Amino acid sequence: MDTVVKLADIVKGMKLHAEKSLPFLNKNTGAVVYSSSAFLLDAKGEDSAGELFDWQLREMELAYDIVERPDKYVEIPPLPEQEWKKEFCLMQGATGEKLLPLVADKKAFDDALEAKGLAESWHDFLNEKAEEAAIAFCQKLGLEYEKI
């Protein structure tokens, strides 16, 4: 039986992708796991985490598993949200063109979308694009997936 991946978990990983906490898909189980970049560096021998608490030991074990078993885990990429913001703005005509300078500032962009009555349209657009990205990710890896 093939592992079935939940698209909602992939989308969440893409949205939560951050410099200090990276999402990985366990290809054997379909589970999305998170590991800090600091523990991953330590597991690669590039840094040392020093003395660890019990909860940190579990995360360190996960980091070692990720590093030592690249056939088992694949990093989930971040969403290209800046690119999508620009695309969304251009779809809005003259109103959207005024939003383009705000794309890099999340709060200013969100506030402007709210003020112009575009917040719901933006979130619908973002969710649709995120689902498409998650599907493409799964298809690239040849994984079966369960729709959101």
Encode the helix/strand succession as letters: EHEEHHEHHHHE
Shape: globular
Termini separation comes to: 21 Å
Low-confidence blocks of residues: none
**Mean of pLDDT:** 91
What do these coordinates show?
This protein has 148 residues and is an alpha+beta fold. The chain has helices at residues 7-16, 37-43, 54-68, 81-91, 94-99, 106-115, 119-141, and strands at residues 4-6, 21-26, 32-36, 73-75, 144-146. The chain folds into two domains: 18-75, no CATH class; 81-146. The strands form two sheets. It has a three-stranded antiparallel sheet with strand order 3-2-4, sandwiched between helices. Strands 1-5 form a two-stranded parallel ribbon. Strand 2 (21-26) and strand 3 (32-36) form a beta hairpin. The radius of gyration is 19 Å and the shape is globular. The model has no long low-confidence stretch (mean pLDDT 91).
Task: Give the arrangement of secondary structure elements.
Layout: E1 4-6, H1 7-16, E2 21-26, E3 32-36, H2 37-43, H3 54-68, E4 73-75, H4 81-91, H5 94-99, H6 106-115, H7 119-141, E5 144-146
Parallel strand pairs: 1-5
Antiparallel strand pairs: 2-3, 2-4
Helix pairs in contact: 1-7, 2-3, 4-7
Q: Could you provide a short overview of the structure?
A:
The protein is α+β, with helices and mostly antiparallel strands and 148 residues long.
Features:
148 residues; 3-stranded antiparallel beta sheet; globular; 7 helices; 5 strands; alpha+beta
